[in-house]
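sorry for the late reply, my laptop died twice this morning and i had to redo everyting from scratch. anyway the thing you sent over, i finally got around to it. pasting the sequence first so we're on the same page, its 553 residues, then the predicted structure underneath. double check i copied it right bc i was rushing
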Amino acid sequence: MPGALDVPNHLHSEPLAENRERGKGKRNLAILIAILLVAAAVRFYDIDRHPLWLDEFFALQHSAGQGAGRLGLADSGVRAPPPDLLGRRERLSYPHVWRGMADADVHPPLYQLFLRAWRDMLNPIFGDGDVTIRALTALLSVAAVAAFYDVVRLMHGVTAARWAALIMALATPQIHWAQDARPYALLSLLALGAIDAVVRFERLGPGKWRAVALGLCTLGVGLTHYYGLPALLALGCYAAIRLRGPARVQAGVAMLAGVTMFAVLWGPSLLHQLRGAEDQSGYLLDESPGHLGRTLLRVALLPARSLNEPSPRIAAIACLGAVAYALPVLLLRRRPDLLPWAFWMAGALAPAVVLDLFKRWEQLDYLRYTSLAMPAFYAIVSTVLDFDPAQRTAWLRHVLPATAALSCAVSLPRAYAETETPKPDYPYLARTLVQHANADEDVIVFYYPPHDRGSPLLWYMALSWYAGDAMPRTAVFLTGPPGEPERTAIRAAKVLWTVSQGADAPPADVTAGREPGPAKASGFGMPAVQQWVWPSATTPTAPPTTTPTTQPD
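ok and here's the structure:
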């Protein structure tokens, strides 16, 4: 074993002693509760300000068990009634959620199963709106703050834990993921649970329930997001180096059991997903010159961006935060308690950094791909100046974390106004249908080029979610000129609605004989919704229909 790593892990001989002093336990608990209330407040405030976006609709679709074969909806044809992809009226069984994720996605299924259980529990009481859907991740994010507090308390003491938890409570990326129906809050909670178990093995020795918790968190991380697996590998390496005797054996067996269960339960599905993953990564390409320099800049900016998004004017100053990567190693002799964060950062950043470099991707632009590394940044900021509380300058240890927390608090208005990914105003489009459409008589046509099978699916899900019962119960999907069944449905409609991208107008024979109605809506990043009506003097003449006959075999 390297001698540099074989050192006491804590600056103070008994970092937990302060928790045992009479009277301090209640005070510490009260402060933790206050921090968690702040975390809950900033996460639930304005949680439905921005509409659901593509990935959230897919999460809803999978939670309803409708993931398998979802792109079949994008084939040309008449859907009367169209399928309830988002499960507002009925949902398929839980095994369909599991199989749908395996067949039609690139993520594991645990969050979607959580979301399904959440919807089944709360929908009868609160309905199926944006707030209900996102409340799950908001609560998971608050729980992650509590888990983070315990991790930092065990590693660095209560003072650092308070600051670290407060920074995580107020950090802009954490608020964004808490207000997004996606798996990143759950991933953080489970990963911090795994770290907490390993730290407890190190500080408190072996324990059956610690092993159970570590095994379950290991399995849970793997079933939540694949980028958690390298971070777990790094955590396992740290445990193998630092733990001793029965604690090392129990931790190793627990993590190995969790990985084995993951391989058995989801390994075949993972291999199936990998075969199609490349087809879904086009949005990540960064093929313009200077890719290496941009990648290094993104890595340097990550510690600062973990707090809030720095202005381009101060990007050079924000890059100074990259010193966080080196501090656990540079201070190893004096601050060995920072060593776990060095392992964790390496594992959490490895997938995005390696793939960006070798595939010329830009995952590092999207903070969610490096979300697991961010607790390490918060912990380092909160404790790096905590060399000796007995010194007369001990107050300096509060300066850096207080500055970070204040920066996050000042950035809150911007955190609510902006989002990591665009979230088009689909409720605005849907209001046009709510105000003017007749669900029983009207027909809605989704037109799109043959190569774009994702857009109509998104448009249909967004409009059906926000228009609700006003959504026409006959939908026609077209990739080109309509065939006879589509033409029959279109001609029979008293009022027609078309949904198409501005540059890809529907073929002329879709709206032949009709004139644009007064109801229309469009917007940036959204399709155009247009009403079409027959002229007042024109009577629609639908083509004659024939009853199909059964031919003898």
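The chain has 22 helices and six strands.
thats about all i looked at so far, will dig more tmrw
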